[in-house]
Design a protein that fits this description.
By secondary structure, the protein is an all-alpha fold. It is built from 21 helices and no strands.
Length: about 425
């Protein structure tokens, strides 16, 4: 499995002229998309299917890659207690970091106060566009979320593409194969071969990333354009600055503890970051980030458990978004929020941010559900940011990706499952 991951990453990191490297081609695609959306907004908005096609092409590979990675990783481990230990350490880290993200988001929005002075009267705002989101929040509870982790059928976990359901099935299969010993080894070897095939498919599909980035960016600029940037510009700037502050203030010292230069790590995953910025979906690079972290020296079993779980429980960028936008809406509608009420909001967000994992548009749905649960800020006010949600997502998704990458390094080092010599070689561009 490690070999498959290395081969997949090597496809994108082999030395070649910069203008043939994926990161540069993605940048070109984004630049062309921005130009098209700016000069011909109608045509740019019609490019949405191009971006969606790329996202779908990657999403179809996510479930089998998670299954193969997790099953092979667990089945190859001699100590089953390690699985539980890794999971527990990951969840503790996730909870601490998401709490810190929510606190920083609340502090930043109270300092920058982007909604002050807007004086929005909701009676003059069309809220019909968010009616479906408000209705959806009534069907999403913590209990329902926990029940949804268990799929209705074995195959259903794969057909629905729910990451937590696939992880649940994968862990069970991994334990079962491990306990079967030599009898199960042929199937473990077959899964290893299958994983190599899927990583090869990812390497092929990723060369469509520049086209996907072009379509996604052209749609965003063409549909929302500069008008959205002007009307809610202060919120967008505040949120982007908050994300940068969080990355520097929180991730930098954590990366330093792991023996990693944060800048070198970001450079190492620059292609994946550009893709998630363009598509506003971190799922599009899930297979590649798994491969890259294994090539970076993280143990396969750690990567297989931390990354899929982190995609649901370690959404630092999403937490920054939730805290920032919730208080912004209160400021914009002149809704008073005391310190105690904001602390209560934070407590609800800690739970709610885990409750919509695997749901499309999770950040917006969680925001709506939180405002409905707290009852202080008018839930209809979410209509104010519906038009710029995609622009905000271009800040939260790369933050989520960096956060999950750093989380994997932390748990791997904590578990003494990180090959630091290999990591330094990879960060220097020498993947062997």
């Amino acid at each position: 499995m490690d070999k498959a991951a290395e081969n997949s990453v090597a496809e994108g990191t082999r030395v070649r002229p910069f203008y043939f490297q994926l990161w540069f081609l993605v940048l070109v695609g984004m630049a062309v998309g921005i130009a098209l959306g700016q000069f011909d907004p109608a045509l740019g908005a019609r490019m949405e299917p191009v971006g969606d096609a790329f996202i779908k092409a990657i999403r179809v590979l996510i479930a089998p890659i998670i299954f193969c990675t997790v099953v092979h990783g667990i089945a190859s481990m001699a100590n089953m207690a390690k699985v539980g230990r890794v999971a527990l350490k990951a969840l503790i880290y996730f909870e601490v970091l998401t709490t810190v993200a929510l606190i920083i988001g609340l502090v930043a929005v109270n300092l920058f106060r982007p909604g002050i002075g807007m004086n929005v009267d909701l009676s003059h705002v069309d809220t019909s566009s968010v009616a479906s989101y408000i209705e959806m929040t009534h069907r999403r509870t913590v209990t329902q979320f926990l029940l949804d982790i268990i799929p209705n059928t074995f195959v259903g976990a794969f057909s629905e593409g729910n990451v937590l359901q696939v992880l649940y099935i994968s862990v069970l299969c991994g334990f079962a194969l491990s306990w079967m010993g030599k009898v199960g080894k042929p199937l473990v070897d077959l899964i290893d071969v299958a994983s190599r095939m899927f990583f090869r498919i990812v390497a092929i599909v990723m060369w469509a990333a520049p086209i996907g980035a072009f379509g996604a960016i052209a749609f965003t600029v063409g549909k929302f354009g500069t008008g959205s940037l002007v009307s809610l510009g202060k919120l967008i700037v505040t949120f982007y600055v908050t994300c940068i502050i969080f990355i520097v203030v929180v991730f930098w010292p954590i990366a330093h503890w792991c023996g990693v230069s944060l800048w070198r790590f970001i450079r190492y995953i620059r292609e994946e970051l550009l893709i998630v910025i363009a598509t506003t979906s971190s799922e599009t690079v899930l297979p590649r980030i798994i491969a890259k972290l294994e090539a970076l020296g993280c143990d396969e079993s750690v990567v297989g458990l931390v990354i899929p779980t982190g995609y649901s429980f370690n959404l630092d960028g999403t937490c920054l978004y939730l805290a920032t936008v919730a208080v912004f809406l209160a400021q914009a509608t002149n809704t008073p929020l005391s310190t105690e009420q904001q602390i209560g909001l934070l407590a609800v967000l800690l739970v709610a941010s885990k409750g919509a994992a695997g749901v499309a548009g999770a950040a917006f749905i969680v925001l709506t559900a939180t405002l409905a649960a707290v009852g202080t800020v008018p839930v209809e006010s979410v209509a104010l940011i519906l038009g710029v949600h995609r622009l905000l997502s271009q800040g939260l998704t790369p933050t989520n990706l960096i956060g999950n990458g750093i989380a994997t390094l932390v748990v791997a080092k904590w578990e003494r499952a990180l090959d630091e010599r290999r990591m330094q070689e990879a960060l220097g561009g020498n993947v062997k």
